[in-house]
Design a protein that fits this description.
Distance between the termini: 44 Å
Structural class: alpha+beta
Helix content: 40-55%
Radius of gyration: 17 Å
Shape: globular
Strand content: 5-15%
Largest sheet: 4 strands, antiparallel
Order of helices and strands: HHHHHHEHEEE
Number of strands: 4
Strand order of the largest sheet: 1-2-3-4
């Protein structure tokens, strides 16, 4: 099923958290979701993205998607990439593709384009540098030894989105 995705730009978005929440992790639907995700892992499929179906579960609980992916055998480093870059690649415009994308990236990095005018989906991220959107979190947890604990809402000590701090020292500011 996933062979056609290999080497393709199309993203596979497994929405495991939605299936898990709806089925309580039991039954044929959940088993199919799990086997599909594991099949993608076996092919070493890397064009995967995470998204949060917050209509299915409480807003702020989308970390469940990441935890399920790791629990089912995905490398935690890839999961973090799928949750950040993979998601952005799904919602960004084509202005980031090819040579035009390189030019656009340079203009943002040189502050020739104002990120507030460009919009959240049009601001590059993935590095901490001038002109990039500042979405950062900090956790005292260890992703390699206990991923679920490291990404749990209770352990996230610092949150910054778009350069604005929302949580510091484990306490919400807004």
């Amino acid at each position: 099923m996933f062979e056609r995705y290999v080497g393709c730009k199309t993203k596979y978005v497994p929405t495991l958290a939605a299936y898990y929440t709806i089925t309580q992790g039991k039954g044929e639907i959940w088993d199919h979701a799990v086997s599909s995700f594991k099949a993608a892992l076996e092919l070493d499929l890397d064009n995967i993205a995470c998204r949060g179906d917050t209509s299915v579960f409480a807003h702020g609980s989308n970390v469940l998607e990441l935890s399920l992916m790791v629990h089912l055998g995905a490398n935690w480093k890839k999961v973090l990439r799928w949750a950040t870059l993979g998601g952005w690649e799904c919602v960004r415009s084509k202005m980031w593709e090819g040579e035009a994308g390189e030019t656009h990236l340079a203009q943002v990095g040189d502050l020739k384009k104002d990120p507030r005018i460009v919009g959240n989906n049009e601001v590059p991220f993935g590095a901490v540098r001038r002109g990039f959107i500042a979405d950062l979190i900090a956790t005292p947890g260890n992703f390699a030894t206990n991923f679920e604990s490291a990404v749990s809402t209770e352990n996230i000590q610092f949150v910054m989105k778009g350069g604005r701090v929302y949580k510091r020292d484990g306490l919400p500011l807004v």
